[in-house]
Amino acid sequence: MTASSLVPNRLFHTNGFSTEKAKKLQLSLSKKVVREDRLPERINYVAGVDVAYTDGHAIGAVAVLEYDTLKTVETRTSFQAASVPYIPTFLSFREIPPAVSAINTLSIKPDVFLVDGHGFAHPRRLGFASHLGLVVDAVTVGVAKSLLCGEIVDKETGGWKPIMHEGSTVGAAVYARPSVKPVYVSIGHKISLETAIEIVKHCTKNYRIPEPIREAHKSAVERKILKTSKRVNA
Questions:
Q1: pLDDT tens for residues 91-133?
Q2: How, if at all, do strands 45-54 and 112-116 pair?
Q3: Cα-flanking dihedrals φ and ψ of residue 197, to 5°?
């Protein structure tokens, strides 16, 4: 069974993929994104999600950490053919299948997922983090390394500055330290921007990237190296 077959048709499709159909789906699904907190009273586990690529294949990776200690308690990866080409602003259609495949193998259920990508801070308000949140029906936060749309307003509030696009606040540039480049945080699904910022700041230690995403990235790279070495030695 493929990851795509596990995703409801109304939320995702790769068969006969076209940007026109994908754009319509993004605009439709963006209206379903919940922009208020639906978290449990206490967060026990936070997960990071990342996707890497090698020779036309995608590696989905998820790492689950204890929220209080940020200790890694579980990692999972998946490996499959990349079913959709890389097209800017349509990344979720490429990355959801491997991400869902990895998430579906978890034995621990995370309370919130930090996703390497944008959420609401997207031209059509449905980046990878928001789309994934709808697909897996979970709380998600977008944490991106570059700005996709909008402008950063030079008005700092507690270590972050708002990102404005078309007259609305769509995300926040969050600074781990004044001298470090920010990460770009936005609502994924079932969370407010204020809470998303708090969680990202809690999960950020010695590096720019929050620990859950760093751990997921490590797992993806390790799987990539393993696949590469097997191919070389074959």
A1: 999 999 999 999 999 999 999 999 999 999 999 999 999 999 9
A2: parallel
A3: -65, -45
Query: What percentage of the chain has pLDDT greater than the value 90?
Result: 82
Looking at per-residue pLDDT, the higher value among 232 and 119 belongs to: 119
- pLDDT digit string, tens, across residues 190-224: 999 999 999 999 999 999 999 999 999 999 999 99
State the DSSP H helix or E strand holding residue 58, giving kind and residue range, or none if neither: strand 57-66
How far is residue 188's CA from residue 174's CA, in Å, rounded to a whole number? Answer: 16
Domains in the chain, ordered, with CATH? Answer: 4-233 (3.30.2170.10)
Q: What is the amino acid identity at position 64?
A: V
Instruction: Give per-residue burial for 195-233: e unless 16+ CB within 10 Å, then b.
Output: bbbebbbebbeeeebbbbbbbbbbbbeebbeeeeeeeee
What length does the chain have?
Answer: 234
| Cα–Cα distance measured from residue 220 to residue 233, given in angstroms and rounded to the nearest whole number | 20
170, 163 in Cβ contact below 8 A?
A: yes
Q: Rounded to whole angstroms, how far apart are CA atoms 196 and 75?
A: 22
Mean pLDDT computed over 23-37:
96
